[in-house]
Amino acid sequence: MAFKIGLLGLGTVGAGTAQILVDPSGRNPLLKEILISQVGVRSPEKARPIQLPPGVITTDLEAIVTNPEIEIVVELLGGLEPARSLILQAIDQGKHVVTANKAVIARHGDEIYEAANRAGVYVLLEAAVGGGIPIIKPLKQSLGANRITNIIGIVNGTTNYILTQMTTAGADFTDVLAEAQRLGYAEADPTADVDGLDAADKIAILASLGFGGRVQREDVYCEGIRQVSAADIAYADKLGFVIKLLAIAKGLGGTESDTLQLRVHPTLVPKSHPLANINGVNNAILVEGDPLGQVMFYGPGAGSGPTASAVVSDIMNIVAILKSNGQTQTLDPLLSCVHQHYCQITPIEAIETRFYARFLTGDVPGVIGHLGTSFGNHQVSLESVVQIGFQGELAEIVVVTHHVCEGNFRTALDEIRSLEAIKSIPSILRVL
Ligand code: NAP
Ligand code: HSE
Asked: Which residue minimizes the CA distance to atom 43 of ligand 1?
């Protein structure tokens, strides 16, 4: 007997998923028992990299989620609607769901998992974070004995690809973004990648799993990579750093009263740090826990095949459960979502971090002294101050701080902006 599944979407990830399922030989034998019953798309006349039997492709997505023969609905549409409504409808019809859609889970996960728990069905999402890297199941299961203290990741392939090309080939931001879109890494609207929103969705999901509580997506502080210039990449290099878009969730050990830091921003990473050498579309997630210490998950973070590998692993998991139980009775707590409380999030002004700031100043005596005094007035201690060179008439000064309170740093910058010698502050970045 075959297990019938319905795919919503046959784009980059949908086509990769179908490709694995129609070619099961040499893979896990369970795959031979899975049949793609229907596939929903927007434009049925579009050329596809995969041939499916006539009648499988439809534009009627509701017919898929209500089809009584289909046991698993695989949502690979992207975006919030109609993805959210179709997932909820599928759950309501008693179907298990597999999704790669971090945007919908990060924003509507509460509603979706409450519905899934009521209906006694699974909603699995291995592909939603890290593309082909197994990270959801490890956090839910393999690392479950630990008190998680830190999750730091490069979780967006598009921006890592862009920053890598800007660093190694001196490439232009717009050209590299176009190439990432052509390769199928970028979201339909690449703003989600470039402005850090995709990474923020992903860290919200990882934090919720790692720290065992719900996370409000709007609590994730988020800056993208648009302000990262070739000049900053070059100065960072001279100072011994590379610039990466990091997604960070930091806690004290996973109890309900802990507050979490949750943030996404471009960051100067010391070249000796393991995350400094993650290049191209690759992602890596460094998880720290007690008593484990550190473990790093690394691999292709986007693209058709890698992401489909994660999607199909979830489909196989559900098929294995269906096979062993006949039908599911009680949900396995290691595969379902059981969180009830919301994590408290530390406001960005209260976090402590190091900063890099670049100033354009008049070339006048005492300007470095004025900068030092203003920082000192607000308890911002400096690790280094370097006059890098000149831009026309203006001197270019780069400052790296010790760990300081972000609120104090911002107040010091407000004072510095009012100094006559300071013409502009073209970049402010955090340092790991
Ligand atoms: P995509 O290439 O844009 O494909 C989307 C598919 O959904 C297309 O087949 C499209 O139909 C269909 N679709 C979208 N809206 C529809 C609607 N309203 N009605 C009917 N069909 C609709 O997207 P993707 O890159 O495969 O991404 C799919 C999901 O996987 C997203 O949630 C994304 O965040 C996630 N993801 C992607 C990657 C990656 O590397 N691309 C990695 C991890 C996770 P047409 O083909 O007819 O246009
Ligand atoms: N657009 C996403 C990225 C796809 O570039 O990482 C993988 O989630």
From this structure: 131
169 shares its domain with 249: yes
Cβ atoms 422, 399 nearer than 8 A: no
The overall pTM is greater than 0.70: yes
Identify whether residues 273 and 382 lie together within a single domain.
Answer: no
What is the distance between the alpha carbons of residues 286 and 143, in angstroms, rounded to a whole number? 12
pLDDT digits (tens, 9 = 90+) for 119-141: 999 999 999 999 999 999 999 99
Query: Does any ligand 2 atom lie closer than 6 A to the CB of residue 126?
Result: no
In this prediction, the residues of the chain whose per-residue pLDDT falls under 70 are: 252-258, 326-329
Q: Is 344 inside a domain boundary? A: no
Picking from 299, 327, 357, the residue at the C-terminal end of a domain is 299
Do residues 394 and 231 make contact, with C-beta atoms less than 8 angstroms apart? no
- Does a structural domain hold residue 244? yes
Number of structural domains, the chain? 3
Contacts of 57 (CB under 8 A, 6+ apart): 10, 38, 39, 40, 41, 44
Q: Rounded CA gap, 303 and 385, in Å?
A: 42
Which DSSP string do the residues of 326-389 spell out, in sequence order?
A: SS--SPPTTTS----SBPEE--GGG-EEEEEEEEEE-S-TTHHHHHHHHHHHTT--EEEEEEEE
The backbone region for 303, taken as left when phi is positive above 0, alpha when psi lies in -120 to 50, beta otherwise, is left
Indicate whether 310 and 361 sit together in one domain: no
DSSP 19-54: HHHH--TTS-GGGGGEEEEEEE-S-TTS--SS---T
- Residues 109, 69, single domain; the answer is yes
Instruction: Catalytic residue, from 102, 137, 140, 202: name it.
Output: 202
Element (H, E) at 145: none
User: Which helix or strand (DSSP H or E) is residue 317 part of?
Assistant: helix 304-325
**371 phi/psi in degrees, rounded to 5:** -60, -50
The one-letter code for the residue type at 181 is Q
Residue 170 lies in a domain: yes
Question: Are residues 198 and 77 both part of a single domain?
Answer: no
For residues 157 and 275, membership in a common domain is answered with yes
Work out the percent of the chain whose per-residue pLDDT is above 90.
88
Same domain, 157 and 274: yes
CA distance 345 to 335: 25
- Is position 202 annotated as part of the catalytic site? yes
- For residue 310, the ligand 1 atom closest to its alpha carbon is 43
Domain encompassing residue 412: 349-431
